[in-house]
Each structure stands twice: as structure tokens, then as C-alpha cells.
Design goal:
This protein is mainly alpha-helical. The chain has one domain (3-88). It has 4 helices and no strands. The chain has helices at 3-8, 13-26, 34-54, 60-88. The protein is elongated, with a radius of gyration of 14 Å.
């Protein structure tokens, strides 16, 4: 799912919250704060995923967007971890 689809999904309060946290983490320029931003966004995304599981109706697009966002955040966290280990090696 691309960012155009994420904008389409942004009408409900829960959606706005996770999208804002996700975007903040992705564009954090302070490498010292980045792990904290990633962790905060992951917590909000996991909470939203749980809400979507309990919600009836067709939420497949948002569910996929949440899954994609979690995947990207975890990839970013892994990259940050790997870069940190290379600096200390």
C-alpha cells in the first residue's frame, strides 16, 4: 500500500493517530530519538491492529496499511540496530 492509500484511510481518529506516529518515526532526523519514535509508533500500530480485529466491517485496506507500516518500522529498527553495531565493531 502506498502513501496515497494511507491518506484515503485517514478519516477515523484511530487512523489519524497511528498515521501521525508512523510518519513522525519515519521522518525523525535525530538518530538519538529515532529508536524512541519507532517504539512509540509500533505501540500505537499494535493497538490499532487489535482494535481492527474487534471491529466488524470491511477494514481490509486499513489492516493492510497497518501491517505494511509495522513491517517498515521493524525494517528501519533493524537497519538502525545494524548501523549501531557496525560503529562499535
Amino acid at each position: 500500500m502506498n502513501h496515497r492509500n494511507l491518506r484515503y484511510l485517514g478519516s477515523a481518529p484511530g487512523v489519524q493517530n497511528w498515521r501521525a506516529m508512523y510518519t513522525t518515526a519515519l521522518f525523525e532526523s535525530d538518530w538519538q530519538r529515532l529508536p524512541e519514535r519507532i517504539a512509540e509508533a509500533e505501540r500505537v500500530l499494535v493497538r490499532r491492529a487489535g482494535e481492527l480485529l474487534k471491529t466488524s466491517g470491511d477494514n481490509i485496506e486499513e489492516e493492510q496499511a497497518v501491517d505494511d507500516a509495522l513491517y517498515r518500522l521493524r525494517a528501519l529498527a533493524r537497519l538502525l540496530y545494524d548501523l549501531g553495531n557496525k560503529k562499535t565493531a
